[in-house]
Amino acid sequence: MRAEKHKVPRTTELEFGGTLGALCLPVLLPLTVLHLLLSCRTRDASLLPPPPLPPSAQLWLPETLLLLLGWGALQGGLYLLPIGKVAEGMVLRDGTRLKYPINGFSALLITGALLAVALPCGLPLGYVYDHMLPLAVSAGVISLSLSLLLYLKSLCAPASAIAPGGNTGNPLYDFFMGHELNPRIGSFDLKYFCELRPGLIGWVLINLAMLMKEAELRGSPSLAMILVNAFQLLYVVDALWNEEAVLTTMDIVQDGFGFMLAFGDLAWVPFTYSLQAHFLVTHPQELSALGAIAIAALNTLGYFIFRRANSEKNLFRRDPSDPRVSGLETIATATGKRLLVSGWWGFVRHPNYLGDLMMALAWSLPCGLSHLLPYFYVLYFAALLVHRETRDEHQCLRKYGLAWERYCERVPYRIIPYLY
């Protein structure tokens, strides 16, 4: 098996700062999460200077670790339920396709039903707000432990299972990027499960906990809190309703499952994407009906662009002969595939990112304009999407060559028309 693995070409193009990034980011990312959560609890919600770390007794509680493990076990059990259909992923290097259960939306509905029963029975959901710091620390511990186990498992994986970007021979970098592409225990796909289940549904749960905490403190949730919960719930519902689409994304098709994705899925998403709701608990905002309508219109337009662009792309990837996309103009490539140059993908090169950014802004606007903290997500997400589209452009140029250059001439703007 070792000899087989040496036949796989080593990756020489390093991302995220290479070895230095792989050394620093596993420290900086958890510290950033703690910094944001602590800042939310301060009177002025300022990002600078950083608030002091509380005593270790306030950062680590074994019960929060057990709580998160129980949450993961619940979502894992729902993942294994024989409901919904089974879809095939993209073709792998060895010519095979993995099978995936498409039941994330059912998992969300069942989780909601369980909450509807448990809350009237006295489930103390306010516990989440009161213990956000130890919950975030426990999520970081779980992410790090899972990443170590994933890397050890990858050392025994066949060559065909290794992720191209996590095959450098540098253990630290491969641990961070993910050495194995689709690590599984039997038919249980660990990366696919973490991508959409415990963190994404956990994000909704945290938002609900913030809403209930605000109602407990002030008698009722504010309009700003209701909008944030509604907008972000729509986003999660959309992701789980269109779960099959994730099988064509960069995370599943190309990136290995290492610390980068594990921490992102299990800690970063639920604890930083819920930052606006967290902020509103301690920094309530008055929002007029007209302001709420304008923000809702922005979110609706962003969602419309995001959904239509993604649907068009996924239909074309799955079946270019589908009548809904067969009439669109394309450019032939040397690989035999074709590039869309009309429809949404003839508007800008990444129209789904444009919709994403519009929704991100709509999530933050209910928090007012006097604090930068609730806009962290917009700033971070803009940087993430620019970095992701840069990675995508580089790979497409390498893969499609002249055809990609022709596409870029036809569609000069990357995300924002006439601006970027």
Provide the fold topology.
Blueprint (H helix, E strand, L loop, with lengths): L1 H5 L11 H23 L15 H4 L2 H18 L5 E4 L10 E4 L1 H15 L7 H5 L1 H23 L16 H7 L6 E2 L2 E2 H7 L1 H21 L4 H19 L8 H4 L5 H14 L2 H8 L6 H30 L11 E3 L5 E3 L10 H14 L11 H25 L1 H9 L10
Antiparallel strand pairs: 1-2, 3-4, 5-6
Function: Catalyzes the reduction of the C14-unsaturated bond of lanosterol, as part of the metabolic pathway leading to cholesterol biosynthesis.
InterPro entries: ERG24_DHCR-like, Sterol_reductase_CS
GO molecular function, one term: Delta14-sterol reductase activity
Mean pLDDT: 89
Shape by Cα distribution: globular
Q: Report on the biggest sheet.
A: 2 strands, antiparallel
Distance between the termini: 47 Å
Please list the strands of the largest sheet in the order they lie side by side: 1-2
Helical fraction:
55-70%
Question: Counting H and I runs of at least 4 residues, what is the number of helices?
Answer: 18
> What's the count of strands?
6
CA radius of gyration is: 22 Å
Number of domains: 2
Oligomeric description of these chains: single chain
- Strand and helix order: HHHHEEHHHHEEHHHHHHHEEHHH
Any low-confidence stretches, pLDDT <50, length ≥5?
1-6
User: Structural class, judged by helices and strands?
Assistant: mainly alpha
Q: Strand fraction band?
A: under 5%
